[in-house]
């Protein structure tokens, strides 16, 4: 299945800091660390980016919180957990990246809020929709079995010719752990797979299987086409086209920043701490913007965007299907 396009947002890990207090945060033989000292230290390190992210999340929640509910976030989390091999594997990946389940859900929530904002504030012209439709290729559903050597792939093809079940062979042989358990199935559109895989898959009719192994940088594939729908009319495909255009917007940090900036300028933001007074300058236009990454840019959803979030891709098993989806 298509790989999640995962961001690396600053974690909203329950940071609650009180100012103007002598309460002790920690102590040792060297003395005490007060909340005031801790607050000042945090301001110097992550204060600006953290405040920026918290303000953006608060404003977007006020506008779109009815759409991005706990149930929606939990569903997204469960989808990603399943796609990465189950609870144990997903927990290990999150741990490698410094996430807990709660902090990762916070990141999912922010991504979905940004997605809701971009959808709400974006309109497409008839010309844009027509141009996208002209290039549009409907998603297909195929299945594949990935193995390391050509001899094994040929043996699998022989077993299929003798009547073996494709899904069972995928579970037994495929090294693509992300798809093996569901029979090797993956849904994709043009340009999302490595060229060799895509060319071989699109050459098949419904129900057909490749008669020779398909070599890619990831090994050798045996591919079966499950469903290759025909392209509908412009009217029939308009909603899908708009979704794809939104996905493109969500992959562009400049487009996201433009949307968020417009929303922030209407939010009457006041920052009382003078040391953090510039936190929202990139969005409020109070000074010339730079190319410095902001928390919202780091939190940008990708395309797929309906099912993507924030664990580092390098931590995941790299299969041909997973890697090619990002192309």
TrEMBL record:
Its EC number is 5.2.1.8. Residues 137-227 form the PpiC domain. It catalyses: [protein]-peptidylproline (omega=180) = [protein]-peptidylproline (omega=0). It is found in: Cell membrane. It is an enzyme of class 5 (isomerase). Pfam families: Rotamase (PF00639). InterPro entries: Foldase_PrsA (IPR023059), PPIase_dom_sf (IPR046357), PPIase_PpiC (IPR000297), PrsA_foldase (IPR050245), Trigger_fact/SurA_dom_sf (IPR027304). It comes from the Bacteria. Keywords: Cell membrane, Isomerase, Lipoprotein, Membrane, Palmitate, Rotamase, Signal. Its main location: membrane. Residues 286-327 are annotated as: Disordered. Residues 1-18 form the signal peptide. Coiled coil: none annotated. Transmembrane segments: none annotated. One of its GO terms (molecular function) is isomerase activity. It is a lipid-anchor. Belongs to the PrsA family. Plays a major role in protein secretion by helping the post-translocational extracellular folding of several secreted proteins. This is Foldase protein PrsA. It comes from Carnobacterium inhibens. The gene is prsA.
